[in-house]
Amino acid sequence: MRPRVWVSQPLFGDIVGRLREHFDVIETAAVGKHPQDEIAAMLASCDGALVTLNDRIGAAEIANAPRLRAIANVGVGYNNLDVPALTHAGILVTNTPDVLTETTADFGFALMMAAARRITEAERWLRDGQWKQWSFETMLGGDVHGTTLGILGMGRIGQAIACRAAGFRMRVLYHNRSRLRADVEGTCRAQYVDFDMLLAQADHLVLVLPYSPAVHQIVNADAIAKMKPTATLTNIARGGIVDEDALADALESGRLAAAGLDVYEGEPAINPRLLALRNVVLTPHIASGSLATRRAMVSLAVENLTAALGVGPRAGDPPTPVNASALDWSRKPGISK
Ligand code: DGY
User: Fold this and answer.
1) What is the CA angle 162-166-169, rounded to 5?
2) Residue-wise burial string across 51-76, b where 16 or more C-beta atoms lie within 10 A, e elsewhere
3) In the annotation, is 38 catalytic?
4) pLDDT tens-digit readout, 98-120
5) Is-catalytic flag, 285?
């Protein structure tokens, strides 16, 4: 019997179609968040799954999935998956790093610039027919070039943003769980500082750290109070990192100049206070969304799933495992756990 895999969202059909060479594939017709019992029912009869951040999978969803050996997440962030629970069950998890680094960094930089220079606010104002007369003082924003960029989370994407900053002659400060090697700091022209210093010094603070409960709302009212009132805050990581009400307070009161948000705690629902503000640029979680990159992410996920289920050119050796310790289980086709 051929292994069976579930593709939880409609993804590029031509790429996902490669799975059919080795597996029976159950595709999903519509985009959406599947209820927990639907995910559990799907996983119950599958050997593998290709999922996205729409799909939350933990102990409950895999409780009756004896065949399940691998979950390939299409995304670098995998906070939708309870990795300890999946690892405990011997299920390999993979993600899609690297292929999205530059595209996501481009977008983070663009969002930061849009917030600083009030680009979407200005466009809305113009489209509303409010531009009656050219004026010297219309929509004055903050500069980007020559200012201090603060990066919270200095992984691959943070480093790629730092590299872009050089072209804008920005001073780059970063804070990260661990300090980078000196040669990497040199390449990024970035200086390590503690979190408080990052908040205090940044003219533009960009969040690029992975979400975990330990960083839940790490950017809260206290943190924002340490920032410059002229600063901008850009979040391309995960919504839960920012206390959105505290951010709305700061943007409403002028305690913070502007924000650029691509991610939200309850997405796709957006805090109505943010929707009502003009000094925040809001985008629908599209930082990695260039066509080429989204295709590359699906391609990598397909390669991961195929290899994790022990077939294809990299059988047993998926390119980007998250919990490689589960690999011993997954590389043995047909193993019963
Ligand atoms: C990622 O890759 O984590 C993006 O947020 C899209 O899932």
Assistant:
1) 125
2) bbbebbbbeebbeebebbbbbbbbbb
3) no
4) 999 999 999 999 999 999 999 99
5) yes
